[in-house]
Fold this sequence. Notes:
By secondary structure, the chain is of the alpha+beta class. It contains seven helices and 13 strands. It has a single domain, classed as DNA primase, PRIM domain. Strand 7 and strand 8 (about 155-165) form a beta hairpin. The longest helix is centred in the middle third of the chain and has 19 residues, at about 120-140.
Amino acid sequence: MTEKTFEPSQVHQFFRLLQLGNRGAVVELRAFDENDQSQNTFSGYFDNEEAFVRAAKVATEHRDGVYVTINVLNPQLLCRSANRAKAFTQITTSDGDILKRRYLPIRIDALRPVGTPSSDEQHEAVIQRCRRVFQYLRYTDYSEPIVVDSGNGAYLLLPIDFQNDDASKREVQKLLEELGEKFNDEWVKVDASVFNAAQIMRLPGTRNRKGDNLPGFPHRMCRILYIPSTLRTYTETSLLEKEAECFSSLSLLNPYKEKDFRDQVIQIPGGFPDKF
Length: 276
């Protein structure tokens, strides 16, 4: 059976979550080979959804990793490569190109050798930890985040409305460090390095091809797991209710009670859904 490598509905939904109703908002698509990110970068700037999805399909067929910017870009960047992506790109989005911060990315990953896919057990541990962080955020003043399974790890994207300045940078750094202090252990960590405004993340609907695809260490799809109700109007077609309920049934977890990693995996009811 041929493995799925592209899910256009997920790409469509995520592009809409990046534009948030502003059809003129510009998004950079960027793709490269995971083992050598300095060579042959495939990049383009898009304000057209259909053109973005077509380029993402080409990228996922020819590159190991497909990524996207998540914050508000200077619309003039569209002139670099308007609604098309090209190979051997030398100039990509920098922090100075960001007008505002739209999302605060919380990236959770399993501690493992560089350049390898996560094992099934590591991937499960990350999603379980992601649930705990999600529940913790619900007990704070933050909005509900979008949740994405990157294929090896997970992202929680907090909707924010920050200027791109030093104060907002410090605030993002502070939150990531606080979450790391609370939730990091010897198996899973919150990445404190993703505070820069031009941060990119893996694009949902594409396949994560980091390392070789081996039994127990497979390549997996990057997929949206949860969209907050406040943002679903932008996507027009929301995720299946079963998918949303599977992730959001978090009342069983106490975010303030620290547990051993092995206990978490065994004691959290439900585990993974069979299908996202």
